[in-house]
Write a structure and sequence with these properties.
The complex is a heterodimer. By secondary structure, chain A is an alpha+beta fold. Helices cover 46% and strands 27% of the residues of chain A. Chain A is elongated. Chain B folds into 3 domains: 111-228 and 310-398, no CATH class; 234-309, no CATH class; 411-551, PH-domain like (Roll). The chains are: A alpha+beta, B alpha+beta.
Chain lengths: 165, 563
């Protein structure tokens, strides 16, 4: 068997397109706080300001690059899929992660909406197993898909018995 | 949150605090009867029992010891203003003694066919209830005072790993003979969930009178898997456990010296040593300090080894449990159900590995590992010869294949990655320090030290690569990694819950991946580091057959998952 002939196909479903905006806004908020702090520093501090302004420019460029590139990259990576037997997710952007768990080992299915996610009409779904290192998270689903996913998984899981450890 | 299945693992509610006392059913309870539990003639409830009467001696003592810093503080504070501090201290002492005595009167317990319950507290009454089919471990500890009085403390563990105290229930303390019977009762003759309690109770093999004694008296139906041999004590100095002891002593001495304004040099012998020491050259001083420290640590480590592992015995009992007894002054006995065992970990810290030794740690659900693996009760073998660790592991697992199987090496790409990572990190630090030395006048030894560290990182990187390996053998996923502490873990494939495949930006470029088998046992996840992607997928597919199949594709081009 040739070792280079096996690969993992990405899960079938993408997350909601609105998630791009959600990730962008969330990242931008973080950068704006940093930029605001730096502007305050410039205003308070007298004397030579070249170092301050250089730092500000670097922050602004990095922030802009992050805010424009990251959401699209993430959107291309984040995918999910469920079958009758397994849940399969793909996430990350620089560091990517694929997680697979059998439906028979699922312990809980949680759905959650943060304040910013509510603004965008999004929700995320967390599937936990008995292992502390194995929760599967799907971020940026639209609300209806998230609800359907939770119902589907709950129905599938209840069909199996055992303690799932 | 939608609770789906009643988990036996981490999320199960096992210790519940309730005020209801009408939970237990009394069905006679033949095994514990005798002196300990007398069933109520009315046939409604199992009677509540008190702890051993001898605890009337230990409880007050414990309270006083616990309050000692405060009492001493009171003594000093009192005597500095007015001079009647000792009265306050005596008052405090009396209160502590009364409180300690009251603990015996307020604590009661009972073992019903379904639950173990403890009632305690004076002002805040608590009833702790542990369902018996959730009991995972029974730990028995005897400290010095306990041993003098023939007592032992029982901790009933339910294996909740999401809580700090692990959801344990403590009985501090019972008579040793009573403890043995209780442990037999709780673990070996435990009624199967849903089965008749009486039937399960009478089906026991071990004669009640011959239970394991905490001091190591062998019972009839036990098979010995390992026992400490005096020759193993030679591994004591290599455990470095004494480093902590030496640190604590050093800290204590310096603290006393600084707070008590004691000039250590005014003590004759100390001054002589210091003067003699001061005459040498710098290198001699450094070498001398290192040697002295090494000797201290070695002696302290050996003592620690003796204290912790004296009379160490690992046995398998008739009820399919593993039983560990050990300890020189404080004795400990840990019992672990084999149905919760998911594998073993052979761990070799660098020094121990150099001396040809290894430790064996259980990978079981509901047992925390990591810091305090010795205390957590997951230690299956103290530092011992590597061959012995492998032999014991094979006896525990019931097959030597997972331990002897040849591991698949991770290939030249993984080797290169180890070196690039070591070089990149150490190189970057060296360059930064060099720049700082050049422009801001940082002392030159900083970048020189970084350069030496870079050179030292090379053999470490090579060793880290040599450790890497994985395979699937005999129904176990075997993975090995690490240099400072090399670990070889054999994880039962049935204990693997799912797979996480992680690839950083650089791993994707190198075609590598880190595969983690998630599990409810031990560290909760065991990784195969920096393995070729296709090999990782094959391993995962072999580990849980069928789970990955719908998501696998054969690509002639060898392309990786799209980003």
């Amino acid at each position: 068997m040739d070792p280079s002939d096996l690969s993992l196909r990405p899960p079938r479903h993408r997350v909601s397109r609105t998630a791009i905006w959600f990730w962008g806004v969330r990242a931008a908020a973080g950068w704006l706080v940093l930029i605001a702090a730096q502007i305050a520093w410039i205003l308070v501090d007298d004397g030579d300001r070249t170092a301050h302004i250089t730092a500000l420019v670097i922050t602004a460029v990095l922030g802009l690059a992050h805010v424009t590139v990251m959401p699209w990259w993430r959107y291309r990576v984040h995918r999910w899929e469920t079958t009758a037997e397994a849940v399969y997710t793909q996430s990350g952007w620089l560091r990517q992660e694929w997680r697979i768990a059998p439906v028979s080992r699922i312990q809980t299915v949680d759905s959650e909406r943060g304040p910013l996610e509510q603004l965008f009409g999004l929700a995320n779904v967390t599937v936990t197993t008995a292992s502390a290192s194995g929760p599967l998270r799907v971020h940026g689903l639209d609300r209806r898909t998230a609800q359907r996913l939770v119902e589907e998984l709950t129905a599938n899981t209840q069909a199996t018995t055992g303690d799932a450890t | 949150m939608t609770g789906l299945s009643d988990a036996d693992g981490t999320s199960a509610a096992s210790t519940s605090t309730s005020t209801s006392e009408d939970i237990g059913h009394n069905i006679g309870f033949p095994n514990i009867s005798g002196t300990t539990i007398t069933p109520d003639p009315a046939g409604d409830t199992t009677q509540w029992r008190r702890l051993s009467r001898r605890m009337l001696v230990i409880h007050p003592f414990q309270e006083v010891v616990r309050a000692a810093p405060a009492l001493i503080g009171l003594l000093f504070a009192g005597s500095s203003q007015g001079g009647n501090g000792h009265w306050w201290t005596l008052g405090g002492l009396a209160i502590m003694l009364v409180l300690g005595t009251l603990r015996w009167f307020t604590t009661t317990y009972r073992v019903t066919p379904k639950y173990v319950q403890v009632r305690k507290g004076l002002l805040r009454r608590q009833v702790l209830t542990v369902p018996r089919d959730r009991i995972r471990t029974v730990d028995v500890t005897s400290h010095v005072m306990h041993r003098l009085l023939g007592l032992a403390r029982v901790e009933v563990g339910t294996g909740r790993s999401d809580r700090k105290d692990g959801g344990t229930l403590k009985l501090d303390a019972l008579r040793v003979t009573e403890v043995d019977r209780l442990r037999e009762e709780l673990l070996h003759r435990r009624p199967a969930p849903g089965a008749s309690t009486q039937a399960a109770g009478s089906g026991a093999v071990v004669a009640p009178g011959v239970g394991t004694h905490i001091d190591g008296t062998a019972p009839v139906a036990e098979i010995e898997l390992a026992a400490l041999r005096p020759a193993w004590i030679r591994f004591g100095p290599f455990t470095l456990s004494g480093l902590i002891t030496v640190g604590v002593i050093a800290g204590f001495v310096s603290r006393i010296a600084s707070e008590g304004n004691v000039d250590l040099l005014s003590i004759g012998p100390v001054r002589q040593v210091a003067e003699w020491f001061g005459q040498g050259t710098l290198w001699l001083q450094v070498a001398g300090s290192v040697v002295v420290l090494a000797v201290f640590v070695a002696v302290a480590s050996t003592l620690g080894y003796l204290l912790a592992f004296w009379r160490f015995r690992l046995t398998r009992t008739a009820g399919r449990t593993l039983h560990v007894t050990r300890g020189l002054i404080t004795t400990r006995a840990t019992t672990l159900e084999e149905r919760r065992l998911r594998g073993v970990e052979v761990s070799e810290p660098l020094l121990l590995r150099a001396a040809g030794g290894a430790r064996l740690i259980a990978v079981a659900t509901g047992l925390r590992v990591g810091r305090g693996a010795q205390r957590g009760g997951s230690m299956l073998l103290p530092p011992a010869p590597r061959a012995e660790a492998h032999a014991v592991a094979a006896r525990v697992l019931g097959g030597s294949e997972p331990l002897t199987a040849e591991l698949v090496p991770h290939g030249p790409v993984a080797l290169r990655r180890r070196f690039t990572r070591a070089l990149a990190v150490c190189g970057a630090v060296t360059v930064a320090l060099l720049a700082l030395w050049y422009w801001t006048g940082l002392p030159a030894w900083t970048w020189e030290a970084a350069l030496v560290a870079t050179a030292l990182a090379m053999p470490v990187a090579a060793d880290r690569y040599r450790s890497l390996g994985h395979t699937i053998a005999g129904g176990y996923l075997v993975t090995r990694w690490g240099s400072g502490v090399r670990r070889r873990v054999a994880l039962n494939c049935e204990g693997i819950i799912g797979w996480n495949l992680r690839r950083s930006f650089f791993q994707r470029r190198a075609g590598l991946a880190t595969l983690t088998a998630t599990t409810a046992a031990g560290r909760q996840g065991y990784s195969v580091w920096d393995v070729d992607l296709a090999e990782a997928l094959r391993t995962a597919d072999q580990g849980i057959p069928g789970l990955l199949t719908p998501f696998l594709v054969k690509t002639g081009t060898g392309s990786t998952p799209s980003a």
